[in-house]
Write a structure and sequence with these properties.
This is Autophagy-related protein 18a. By secondary structure, this protein is mainly β. It has one helix at 21-24, and strands at residues 3-4, 47-48, 69-76, 82-87, 90-96, 99-106, 113-118, 124-129, 140-145, 150-157, 163-166, 170-174, 178-183, 189-194, 204-205, 213-217, 223-228, 233-238, 244-249, 255-260, 265-270, 276-281, 289-294, 300-305, 309-314, 359-362, 369-373, 379-384, 388-393, 400-401, 403-409. Helix content is 1%, strand content 41%. It starts with a strand and ends in an 8-residue tail after the last strand.
Amino acid sequence: MATLSAYPNTNTNTNTNFLSPTDQSNHDRESIPPMQNHPSAEPDSDANPNFHSPLLDPPDSVPPAVAPSSLLHLSFNQDHGCFAAGTDHGFRIYNCDPFREIFRRDFDRGGGIGVVEMLFRCNILALVGGGPDPQYPPNKVMIWDDHQSRCISELSFRSEVRSVRLRRDRIIVVLEQKIFVYNFVDLKLLHQIETILNPKGLCAVSQGAGSLVLVCPGLQKGQVRVEHYASKRTKFIMAHDSRIACFALSQDGQLLATASTKGTLVRIYNTIDGSLLQEVRRGADRAEIYSLAFSSNAQWLAVSSDKGTVHVFSLKISAGSPGTTQSRSTSEPVVSSHSSLSFIKGVLPKYFSSEWSVAQFRLVEGSQYLVAFGHQKNTVVILGIDGSFYRCQFDPVNGGEMTQLEYHNFLKPEAAF
């Protein structure tokens, strides 16, 4: 982890949606229903139904002379317009376009935040303590209201929280072998899901205006489980022979991209019927896939790995609802129009007729990067665990190397608002 100098929070005016007046003209104000302070009545051995609201006010901000900060967590918000960083002193919120830090909160006791989950651009966050000196116990999810500058509720568990996902109507908490789905308004426990060992806290939820689709690891190696809550259907997909390393959902929840621990192939599935729609190749050698992301129109897929290259693939999903798209035969190789070897499809092994990425961007090999599509056309935003922020543009017709448009180190003092 990179360590860079920390400095005190100078923003004393906490906005209800993390946006300055100039930003609000370009973004709708996000809101959720007011939370009711009713404890969950669902008994469970792992989910402790102890909710406390309100909690005590947080400790004062960090004084100027503090130790350097280490980055513990990075995550985009649901529309990829902002991202959150958890450090060993607190958390920070950044706007992607234009890039700037819009909020930070540093704590003077403990301070380590291992998970920060935003809810679009509103004032509600989910926090989990982390690092060597956590601000909160790592087995608790703290619901933070920055309009009130304090935690308003907490969810307690008997094991460490691996990740949290938020929607306007749901809170999803991921433990190592179990997932809990809560109603956001009253914190009532709605669903429990058993999973295979899931130390990364893999989980994805749809963010469209429609019904909730949730994807998580199944109970077998290489299997993913898809929950369609509107139709009350559960679909299991045997996506890979190896263990699942990463997956992503399209905004509407109809497309699922998966990668295994082998890291050579990425597969795109229809979540409704579980059919394989497309298969693309990241490379020939093993790699650890860190991040997968669909573009907002599901035309492109971005992939980052420990090989130091971000790839952008063209998705060949036909127009119309992906739910009605006919899947390709899993035995027929997917041939890219960019492959010079496509004419020998079926003669040589499948590797030579694989569908390769349209565009690439080179980074430092071995470092961890998170990727998403920017709000500007044909742009990709890349976040590094070293504090790096890149905005790149790709050519959708000719492909090739992406053009770097912007770079910042968001942990440096000069990145402050």
